[in-house]
Specification:
Blueprint lengths: L9 H4 L2 H11 L16 H13 L3 H14 L9 E3 L2 E4 L2 E2 H5 L1 H12 L2 H19 L9 E4 L5 E5 L1 H20 L5 H16 L12 H9 L5 H10 L1 H4 E2 L3 E3 L6 E3 H14 L2 H9 L14 E3 L4 E2 L6 H15 L13 E2 L2 E2 L5
Antiparallel strand pairs: 1-2, 3-4, 4-5, 6-7, 7-8, 8-9, 9-10, 11-12
Helix pairs in contact: 2-3, 2-15, 3-4, 3-6, 3-15, 6-7, 6-8, 7-8, 8-9, 8-10, 10-13, 13-14, 13-15
């Protein structure tokens, strides 16, 4: 597939300071970082935001955000789906939100090799991972959540399960660093991977209109090699507007910066570096005057929507830049070549 894009120099896209300054302006004294001013916080996107801060080497702010997560974690290891001003808003407890802290912790360790950080947050991560795999079926699928009433919703979501797969990889990498052994995590990792690769029909297909359903199994490394390449190629025209970016949902003309950046990470993971760079070039002028990214826009009328600047959208744009330009020691986190199962090798594409 031949793609076209402007010839963007890496220096043009290096808006690390502007993005991290914006994120820092949102952080509260508690360490909480909401989506936007007066917005909500969800645990998954907060971890994404932490990784953006890491790329800017704002570790003090990252550590404060981790500490906020530690302080609000539920006894069973979960977090609520959203918080407003530190208070629970949506009392659903989702599995992928409970597990994702491991990705943020491992990303931080790749950046600064701070094993004391891993030791400090090990109990938090352990409880989060154990909550997620407690909702795993015999077939390997992960149910997506417990309801506010405490009932398990027997539905598995491919995007969420793929995120848990990535979280298990990183949790096992953290365990290896700390000399810990968790056979139950290894078993869950193997079962989940086999489920995603071999029984994808068991996942709720109604979510397939969302582009993350398409690329997240590749981004997480659950599907690799020729099968991953085939999946990306097969559905490309369903989700991608060439020259613009990735639709959030396939049946709406809404291009989002976060999904486009995540597709860049998925293509990078496959080793398709040139294609990833072209896709990233499409969004390089989708910025406000302060060099922070829009959340998204409608096409072809080019209306920015929503108008709020979003913390995690900007953070994942930095993660895409890091992968493309090898800015930090964590740039290879999503490279398929960097992993042998759950063993992190650090090999680059």
């Amino acid at each position: 597939m031949a793609l076209k894009g402007p010839n963007i120099k890496s220096s043009y896209s290096m808006n690390i300071d502007s993005v991290t300054s914006f994120i820092l302006s949102l952080q509260k004294e508690s360490g909480d970082i909401p989506w936007h001013a007066d917005g909500k916080t969800d645990p998954w996107d907060l971890v994404e935001t932490i990784m953006g801060l890491n790329i800017g080497k704002n570790f003090d702010a990252s550590y404060r955000a981790f500490e906020w997560l530690k302080n609000i974690q539920n006894k069973d290891g979960s977090w609520y789906s959203s918080y407003i001003n530190g208070k629970p808003a949506d009392l659903t407890c989702e599995t992928h939100m409970a597990a994702y802290i491991s990705v943020g912790l491992f990303h931080t360790w790749l950046m600064n090799k701070d094993s004391k950080l891993l030791e400090h947050f090990w109990p938090v991560m352990e409880k989060g991972i154990n909550y997620a795999i407690s909702l795993q079926t015999k077939g390997g699928e992960i149910y997506w959540a417990r309801s506010p009433e405490g009932k398990i919703d027997p539905m598995s979501l491919l995007t969420g399960a793929s995120s848990v797969f990535m979280s298990l990889k990183c949790a096992l990498a953290v365990a290896n660093i700390l000399g810990e052994k968790r056979i139950s995590w290894e078993t869950s990792f193997d079962k989940l991977g086999k489920s995603i690769r071999g029984n994808i029909h068991n996942y709720n297909v109604s979510k397939s209109r969302f582009s993350m359903y398409w690329f997240y199994p590749v981004l997480a490394g659950a599907i690799t090699g020729e099968k991953a390449e085939y999946r990306i190629e097969k559905y490309w025209r369903k989700y991608v507007i060439e020259g613009q970016g990735v639709r959030c949902v396939s049946d709406q003309p809404w291009v989002t910066i976060a999904e486009t950046s995540e597709l860049v990470l998925a293509l990078y993971g496959l080793g398709q570096i040139e294609k990833a760079g072209i896709v990233f070039s499409w969004i390089q002028d989708r910025m406000y005057e302060d060099k922070t990214y829009w959340c998204g826009y409608t096409y072809p009328d080019m209306v920015i929507w929503p108008e709020e600047k979003i913390s995690w959208t900007n953070a994942v744009s930095l993660m895409a830049q890091d992968a493309l330009y090898n800015l930090t020691p964590a740039s290879t986190l999503f490279s398929h070549r960097s992993w042998d199962g759950f063993i992190y090798t650090g090999l680059v594409n």
